Amino acid sequence: MSISAPAVPNMPRTNRQAAVLAVCCAATAMASMDTAAVTVALPAIGRGLHGSMSGAQWVVVAYPLTLACLLTLSSSLADLIGRRAVFQIGLTIFAMSSLASSIAPSMGWLIASRVAQAVGGSMLTPVAMAIISAVFTDPGQRVRAIGAWSGSIVLGLAAGPLVGGFLVDAVGWPAVFWINAPIAAVALPLTRLIVPESRSKRPPALDPLDQLLVSGVLGLLVFAITEGPHRGWASPVTIGCLAGSVTCLAALLRYAPRHPHPLIDPRLFRSAPFTGAFVIAILTSAAMGGFLFLNTFYLQEIRQDSPLATGLALTPMALAMLLFGPMSRRLIARRGARRTLTAGAVLATTAAATLTATFNANPLPLTVYAIFGAGLGLLHTPLTATATAGLPPPQAAEAASLVAMSRQIGQTLGIALIGSMIAAQPDALTSSTTFHPPAHLSWLTITTLCAATLLITRISTAPKRINTVPD
């Protein structure tokens, strides 16, 4: 790995390291806050741009879907041409596309801007971790720095609903995009000034076909799920997209094992802990994405709460995530990842099952929201450690990247699934009576996702499977 940086007069190494960490954490928190903040703004966006439920889904889904497709590619690009350079490009694209989103005159414009935002976002989160790993050479300091950086992801997710609700109420929905510009405007020159350039000594080869197949699997599947209720599940477009997704998956499974440096290394899936963590990340992120999407429309369209009141109602869940995320590190040290993940899955499943029966209670079951958030907080942090358990360093880095990718896949699928259930009943948002059937089905789906997380946790973290390492 080669590292070079512009000279920063009179700045000790420890101060520069702290400054680099601060820049990376700020950019990562900005990117992770985006989807949660925009989700709370969806009803206002729909009214302002005269959008449909399908349009609302695409406004949110376009970001994590694009991010999932490009995370690994952007990380490889940074290893090839330089991490600081790619990070700066990402900040610029993210800021400019955020401003473009804020002036969108139509849903189509906004969705396209959200795709561009995700292109920039894909150059922030994985590249930030690589920069931190390059700057913090001492193993102990590196662990603490990555822990702080991981906390910034949870902080962004937790702050998103409240920040989004406040901005929509105080200014209007464009403000949820304006907030990104000043953060990027400060981070961009600081990146140039203090972040050292670094790149991999053995950068992976970029493979366009592999990237195209992964994008085809995800994009066609999500399009079918999102548009199925509107176009008809038996329509040629829906069936064609599902068939195309399966075809791309089959081609990927045939192509990847034959490629020396595939985008997704199939050998990693021989490791039970990695496979379990990959699936758990998809399931838990789907549950969280579905939770935020469902509650946003329930609180604002059915209960007629304001965006700020919606953000406040979701705050107990967010604060519990923020509290139990760091707590999970101590639990892992004392009890191990298996028990920590199991506790998180039990809490999330219990809360989701309770909300299936009580989601329309008055007052809102905010304590149950908090229990759900606590479960997700316990599940979030141990996944990367579980995925990389027993793997050699090169494969461990790739495994961590794929877990980040799987989180975006899960969020995309969760929003698409819950949105399609609401959209399947055209008058669902007109009254609490018509909203109840799709909402009940949605909560059952979220409960099933959490229960599946518990099952996969117990299977994949069994002691006899921990030592399974791919060749």
TrEMBL record:
PROSITE patterns: MFS
Domain Major facilitator superfamily (MFS) profile: 20-465
Lipid bilayer topology: Multi-pass membrane protein
Signal sequence interval, chain numbering: 1-36
Name of the featured protein: EmrB/QacA subfamily drug resistance transporter
Segments passing through the bilayer: 57-77, 89-112, 118-136, 148-167, 173-195, 207-226, 232-253, 274-294, 306-328, 340-361, 367-391, 412-429, 441-459
Protein's cellular compartments: Cell membrane
A cellular component annotation (GO) from this entry: plasma membrane
Keywords assigned: Cell membrane, Membrane, Signal, Transmembrane, Transmembrane helix, Transport
Record family assignment: Belongs to the major facilitator superfamily. EmrB family.
Single annotated GO MF: transmembrane transporter activity
Family matches, as Pfam families: MFS_1 (PF07690)
InterPro entries the UniProt entry points to: EmrB-like (IPR004638), MFS (IPR011701), MFS_dom (IPR020846), MFS_trans_sf (IPR036259)
